[in-house]
Amino acid sequence: MSEKVLMKGNEAIAEAAIMAGCRHYFGYPITPQTEIAAYMAKRMPKIDGVFLQAESEIAAINMVIGVAATGKRVMTSSSSPGISLKSEGLSYLAGCDLPALVVNVQRGGPGLGGIQPSQSDYWQATKASGHGDFRRIVLAPASVQEMVSLTFKGFDLADKYRMTSMLLADGTIGQMMEPVSLDMGEVTQYDKSWALTGTGRQRKPNIVNSLFLKPEELEQTNFERYDRYAQIEKNEVMYEEYMMDDAEYCVVAFGIASRVSKNVINEARKKGIKVGLIRPITLWPFPKDALLKAADKCKAFVSVELSMGQMIDDIELSIRCKKPVLLCNRVGGMIPTPQDVMNAVEEAVKIGG
Amino acid sequence: MDFKRVALFSGHYGSGKTNIAVNYALYLRSFGKEVTVADLDMVNPYFRTKDSSDVLEKEGIRIISSQFANTNLDIPALPAEAYAVVQDKSRSAVIDVGGDDAGAVALGRYVPYILEENDYDMFFVINKFRPLTGTAQETVQVLREIEYAAKLPFTAIINNSNLGHLTTAEDVLESQKYAEEVAELTGLDVRYTTVKEDLAPSLTGKIENLFKLKLHVYQTWSTV
């Protein structure tokens, strides 16, 4: 008897969230992530959970704030334009130090864009997801199995650091079907003594709030929050290295772009090109140290993205512009072809020498 | 071989309808039949029949799909020419229906023609390795929901139980019990058990009515 099931990436997120203890899901349909809501609609009533199709993305994220304040695991999901609508709520989640998991299965943009896959919300996810000074943990799955493991991880990190995690997938990983194991072991319980659970007149009320009347207090809250962010940058960086041991050229890619890149790296190796891959799994915190280390031995980098070139900024910053970084990209719902990536690798060889 | 003129493929979301429909169309063609494939899937945005249009058209198979399939638009519109599959009785028709009851709703406008002609097979595609259809009981529930939405009764089952690239011969053998349970609960016969081409040799003789499947869409990304 096989332990595995065959799942769509979006279904895997939903089932993994349920297994991680999430019993509250608020969402609004948008392609290419609607299967998450559809799956939750079928499953939640059977396990005494709450599935609610909100009247809008804005309503959904505010419902998330409400449940998160009670210390329960809660999730919302959307795709690019819908995440833009949620951005005010995302800032409030940060300002209130609330744990939640927000899923973005990206599609092409800007504007209404299209329904085909994209990674062009990298900047939005890692840098500018709402107003004010704040960070968010951003996890980038590259397989349906990672939709499961990173959904778990996202909830854990959110609880551990009292902040929002984002699962930043692309439409292809959301729609593709792969065999997965759902066995993730026990769910870790975190201290939630801050949560609004009713005092029973036994203790002082907890307060969850993002308004501070005194600027000194607001400043101090920001400082403390950034101390926590520093811990995350130190302890929670995740990435995968593929054929980097002897690599002279380094491809950097996440999500579906990393899967295309792996095939190309195998082909390039057959041609004698010593190329490897660094795949960031956490986009924030970004694997800066791994890249800087690679810059010592690699002659050139290639950033493969489904965007006009967003992650490339972080690569250049990480390696302090020590080596050239080429961009290999397709946008608008297109995925870089193996030939696109091979051409970029060969160009890197020319430039890197 | 005696085939019904119209073959419809319906079932749970992600049960494998599209791939089977494409393979079935090629199978019919190998008997010299004139074949039209209609993609009536209004619920699945990616990985559609149209992805296989090259291989189908090369074999002289006509393909009808929404002009919006594989575009950036999310419009559940069906092309007027889709009526050809029910009205042009000179050609065999293979109809790829969208998943679940939501996808089967699209059949409504064609069903009166199909029932009147009464020369059809409505295949219920099942995969025990999919979530929400892991047991025979759950699977039959999906079947009832689809029949209610489609207003068309199923005539046979296709057991497409698989785990993608990890499928073993044992998985397929093991799934037979599940398929037989579904058959017993519904009174339908298991018309075919599908299997990836490479597993066929190890299952030949062990399973009746084995239907070999080939993946016609080239995948540019690595297998995990």
Task: Describe, in plain words, how this protein is organized in 3D.
The complex is a heterodimer of chains A (353) and B (224). Chain A has 353 residues and is α/β, with parallel strands linked by helices. Chain A has 2 domains: 5-190 and 209-235, Thiamin diphosphate (ThDP)-binding fold, Pyr/PP domains (Rossmann fold); 240-352, Rossmann fold, CATH 3.40.50. In chain A, 41% of the residues lie in helices and 19% in strands. Chain A contains 13 helices and 14 strands. In chain A, strands 3-2-4-5-7-6-12 form a 7-stranded mixed beta sheet, with helices on both faces. In chain A, helix 12 links the parallel strand 13 (300-305) and strand 14 (325-329). In chain A, helix 11 (288-297) crosses helix 12. Chain A is globular and about 70 Å long. Chain B has 224 residues and is of the alpha/beta class. Chain B has a single domain (6-213), classed as P-loop containing nucleotide triphosphate hydrolases (Rossmann fold). In chain B, 33% of the residues lie in helices and 20% in strands. Chain B contains 8 helices and 8 strands, in the order βαβαβαβααβαβαβαβ. Chain B has helices at 17-30, 53-58, 84-87, 100-104, 111-117, 136-150, 169-186, 200-203; strands spanning 6-11, 35-40, 62-64, 92-97, 120-126, 156-159, 189-196, 210-213. Chain B has an 8-stranded parallel beta sheet with strand order 3-2-4-1-5-6-7-8, with helices on both faces. In chain B, helix 6 crosses helix 7. Chain B is globular. Chain B starts with 5 loop residues before the first strand and ends in an 11-residue tail after the last strand. The A-B interface holds A 1-2, 4-8, 11, 15, 31-32, 35, 38-39, 42-43, 108, 113-117, 142-143, 145, 171-172, 175-179, 256, 259-260, 262-263, 266, 332-333, 335, 337-338 and B 13-14, 44-47, 71-74, 127, 129-132, 134, 162-166, 168, 171, 174, 220-222, 224.
